[in-house]
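Take a look at my tokenised protein here and describe the backbone shape.
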Amino acid sequence: MPAWCLPPETTLALVRVGILLSGATAFFSMREQILGLIGSRGILPIKRFIENEQARYGRTGAIIAFPMVFHASADDATLTRVCSAGAVLCGVGAITSIWIAMPCWMSVMFAYLSYVLYLSIVHGGQMFTNLQYDTLMCESLLMTAVSSAYYTATLDAGTALLPVRVLTFRVLFESGMRKLMGGCSLWTSLTALCSHYESQPLPTILGVAAHRMSPTFLQGVTAFTLLVETVGALLLWFEPTRSYAFVASMIFQVGVGLTGNYGFCKFLLPSLLLSFLSPYSARIWSQAHFSRPVRWLHLTMMAMCFMGIVPILTSMNVSFRYECPRRLRVLWTHLLKFQTLLSLRLRILSVYKLFEDIRPSRRDLVLEASWDEQGDTFRVVPFLYKPNRHEAPQWIIYHLPRLDWALWFAAWGTWESEAWIFLFEQRIQQECGPAWDLLRTAGLPSEPPKRVRWKLVHMQVASERINRWWVSRPIGGFYSPPSYMAMNRLRQGLAQLGHPFAIPPTEPSPTR
């Protein structure tokens, strides 16, 4: 074993600690904002969502379609307790992995329960938790539980690391292949990072500094990114090149975490990469001296690893056409259906395509509110973390602000596709409750605003000679439904979100 390698037992413990601590930060981050997002006084109340899905599928069908603990209770206290319980489980599981050197079923239980709770948050969070980072966290927690269970039963840490290694390879390789084959011309022309550091959801100060570098250097960084995620991911499996690929991949992940605010993911991906710190020593086939339950566990773990081939081939746009044998086409069709089912229900075996589409420029939504009856005077309501013209970009350690991220996607959408924004407007005009707390309200009146409107602006990183960080200019008019017909389409979009009765059947005010 090379000098820089670690024993498989130590590597497994480090991976387990890193994933569980990342899960604890994800639960803590969600606890700070869950009531404003899906609470009873939030933007998309989860009770209304569950009632709508139960009316559509029935109670049993809704539980199967959206497996989560909130079917039993979905009040505000339960939402907060689930986040707190998940953070405690992940934290205690990480501490147990550090203090207890011997195999222990407690780590298995903590990781599995954390997966169940986070899966509930992902389904209950609706569009606010529909990020690939959330899917990756679910799959990482489940793979941690499976690896810990296998190691506890067999004391074979080398084989127990295999599911985590396959997941790490899938995240890198699938993301790289989607960049090359997804149709984004910025990646194929090696100019993606020339605009990414400016147009990403929440850049940091280092991200702004990186955007100001020369285009030639940024093109080189873009090529390095594609090499790490494609060729580097393959080289991780070969012993002579594993150390070089590991160092390059870790440098890439650290660079991503320093130039952008991606919450818990900046800790999760490096933790997954740690699984390649020990030599490859997995035993693919089950051993005869294992007991029957252990053999079944081994078979299940290997099946999960081999099923990872389906999303890998999907990311490469592989399809079996009529020239292939019929049995192969039928098998591929069934595998795709099974993979889609697991991806939608359990959030595992998804196709990862991180940063597949790069925005060529930055758009932002500016919220303006008026507290007078005539609606003549509007004031800008700043967000907690979105870029501000006169303030330096913030450095967020672990928090992932869901509202700020959702508004970044909404800036490139329309009212019909981003119908939840109207619910947000309604909520902050009704009361200064949990949804209002998601904004930076210092210096604003304590009562709810009378009128609210959105302005779509184009933002650019300011020159170093200007005494500000961003330069903005408006794009078109206000971001709002222009007519009563658009309001009807908006009502249909809200019905698809599970909130069909949120809009009164009245014509919108001409001031909006």
User: Anything to note?
Assistant: The longest helix spans residues 8-31. DSSP finds 21 helices and four strands in the chain. The beta strands are 362-370, 379-380, 451-461, 470-478.
